[in-house]
Amino acid sequence: MQFIDLKSQYQAYRQEIDAGIARVLEHGRYIMGPEIEAMEKQLAEMVGQPHAISCASGTDALLLALMALGVGEGDEVVTVGFTFIATAEVISLLGATPVFVDICEDDYGMDPQLLEAAITERTRAIIPVSLYGQVCRMGPINTVAKTHGIPVIEDGAQSLGALQDGRMSCGLSTLSATSFFPSKPLGCYGDGGALFTDDDDLARVCKELRAHGQERRYVHTRIGVNARMDAIQAAVILGKLPHFENEMEKRSTLGARYTEALKDIVRTPKVLAGNRHVYAQYSIEVDDREAFRAHMQTAGVPTAVHYPVPLHLQEAFRYLGLGPGHLPRSERVSERIVSLPMSPFLTLSDQDHVIGSVREFFGA
């Protein structure tokens, strides 16, 4: 059993993916080839935003968003500490300071009630994270941000395809970022990412920034980076996009099936009202995680931990001077969270084996 079954996905869509890659090899336009524009158009339509701007990774998407907003030295950006390091890493790379707020314990997203107190006159942006495949509480977060005139960047690296009140993740804020890392809900076969916005000026700036600040060939209006997505990766995404909605429905169904079978013995994911959860990870909480993982390994079931150390306790952010107790919910969850196998190609027989192995550990 695989934690994420990418091989079966490739076999299912092999004809479309191989044909798309072959077209790139034939025309030879590997950088900013026609597949890029075609992919961006389809992504924008799917998310419901006028602009989708592809880039080299989800990390670059966040970096470009902050650069487009002019975030730099002396600024602060409010985000969460329970996430992958990229969310806060890009803030520090630009010389700004990440300000961590704690999470809600039901969806593991930013607690809007703690946001107001974290905002200062130096706050230039807010980055909530829609973790594990569910949109966080974007409505209340946007309300607080609007009161202060602060732009919001949704980190939707794990939540593309998730819905909140009928609107898709990455279409709910000033700017948003997603990742096409192979294990993500929509993954390519390397690194890739995208930004989304409804602001024409921000879209233009992001496009320039991803190509060395270039307005047109050899005319550079700003300092940028090399963050372009290559055409082969775009071809992979184009091969998968026709199947994406079906995959999201399968993820949602498999997640609900896990929850129904396990909710009486472990803490299972809560789906917020009005949300469709697409379970980029299916994560539960257990008391003795290491013993649980050892048991599952013996049973032939792979598991993973997302994430074992909150960011404020990472060595990289030691300079912030934050210690244990600063984010108590994040710290508690990081000690208990564990993810079970999940993909649209998880068979019911394999899922039943996972469920049985979990129940066996708890003697249920």
Overview of the structural elements:
47% of the residues are buried. The strands form five sheets. The chain has a four-stranded mixed sheet with strand order 1-9-8-5. It has helices at residues 6-27, 34-47, 58-68, 86-93, 112-118, 138-148, 200-209, 231-240, 244-262, 289-298, 328-336, 348-361, and strands spanning 51-55, 76-80, 97-101, 123-127, 153-155, 163-164, 167-168, 175-179, 193-197, 214-216, 219-220, 275-276, 282-285, 337-340. The chain has two domains: 6-242, Aspartate Aminotransferase, domain 2; 244-361, Aspartate Aminotransferase, domain 1, CATH 3.90.1150.10. Helices cover 40% and strands 14% of the residues. With 364 residues, the protein is of the alpha/beta class. A hairpin with a 2-residue loop joins strand 6 (163-164) and strand 7. Helix 9 runs parallel beside helix 12 (348-361). It is globular.
Strand content: 5-15%
Q: How many individual domains?
A: 2
CATH class descriptor of the largest domain: Alpha Beta
The CATH topology of the largest domain is given as Aspartate Aminotransferase, domain 2
Apparent shape: globular
Span of the ends, CA to CA? 23 Å
What sequence of helices (H) and strands (E) makes up the elements?
A: HHEHEHEHEHEEEEEHEEHHEEHHEH
